[in-house]
Design goal:
Blueprint lengths: L1 H26 L3 H26 L5 H24 L10
Helix pairs in contact: 1-2, 2-3
Length: 95
């Protein structure tokens, strides 16, 4: 019983944190702040799904955790490359 209460409190705190990061994405002063907030939302989603997996005592969500983490990483790298160079995919080839 105490474990379910602790997991519920953790889910609530991560959900509040995710909404605060969403506010930072909408009102962030710089693009870098928005990218960091987006990456943090991805990590919060991983934590939320992990807590749900523990709450329901199942391993079914572990694939979802890996998928969210992978997509968050790719998104962060893509946004960072876009901020640095202005393009995501370089099409130039040296012949």
């Amino acid at each position: 019983m105490i474990i379910k209460i602790a997991l519920s409190i953790g889910l609530l705190l991560y959900s509040i944190s995710t909404f605060l990061y969403l506010y930072r994405i909408l009102k962030g002063p710089t693009t870098s702040d928005k990218v960091i907030a987006l990456d943090s939302i991805g990590m919060n989603l991983v934590a939320i799904v992990a807590l749900l997996s523990m709450f329901y005592r199942t391993n079914a969500y572990l694939d979802v955790i890996l998928l969210i983490a992978l997509l968050a990483f790719i998104g962060t790298v893509s946004f960072s490359k876009f901020i640095e160079k202005g393009k995501v995919i370089d099409r130039e080839r040296d012949n």
